[in-house]
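EI: anyone free to look at a 325-residue chain?
SC: sure, send it
EI:
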Amino acid sequence: MVSHTCDQCGATVPADEQFCPSCGAFIDPLQESAPPRPAPARPRRSSGNVISVSSDGPYEEFRLDEPTPAAPPPSTPRGASTVECPSCHAPNPSTNLHCQNCGARLRQEPLPTAPRPAVQATAGVRAALAISGLLLVVILVALAVNLFGGDGTATSTTVPTSTTTTEPQVVENAPIQVLSVTCTQPGLGPYVCDNLINGEGSEYQVNWEELEAAEQTLEIRLNFSQPMIVERIDWLNLSDTNRFRQNHRAQGLTIEADGNLVPLTTNLENSPGLQSITWATVNANYVKITIHSTFRAEVVDGQSYRELAIDEITLIGRPYTAPSS
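SC: here you go
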């Protein structure tokens, strides 16, 4: 019988096997094998149902009325133990690693694995490790020197704390909220002193001709709830031109405040409506305005009055903040 040579491991495989018993590789039955030795020619004869074929191959005589003979089981060397294939249950020599009938693996123990290669540090890695170790030693020595001085006592390190300076908040000027207002003359009827700061458009009136005859002045004091910086005074006369001219109008003024060493003397304009007086004082708890003279009342539409009329007084400024030492 012609044998084959395994292409994978080079083992010799019998011609009737499809798998290499050594490595389990598939053996192509059409693979060219070594040419068989020529056999002597046998005469062809026929007798009844017996057919005999003579050729160069390994053929034998058989009868037509007999069943086809089964393939012989794989040969096992004499005296060798057998191993049953777990896949096709065919017997195999115990020396086989794979089934010579189906090529299945006969043994299920784990295949040997190569040992894990040992980690080898390169020269660069060894140098980096050496430098890191040296730096660690230097740091530890520096910490020891810092903690323990030459006298052997521990020294504490003071970490400077950051200080933040708070800039003073800039407050814009606005109408000052006046706590109260007092006048040396309370006023006539509903035209009282409080009308100067209520913002309701109601005016303040006094009999100026009586004050003038008694050689008296009129003082108006505006009080604050806290020290203030005053930078401007808005004086509001009557807006109606006829009524403005029919009454006395303030003219000569003296303005002062607590802590203000030099009072301001000024004159108002003879015009209805609003006019502003630029004047500054710092850390003031009140402002006092003294009226010395007036523009005389005029006859308009046959009417003239003895009263001095003022619509409203507004102070412009902001709260005073003492400078930090």
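EI: Confidence is low (pLDDT under 50) at residues 43-48, 50-59, 152-157.
SC: 👍
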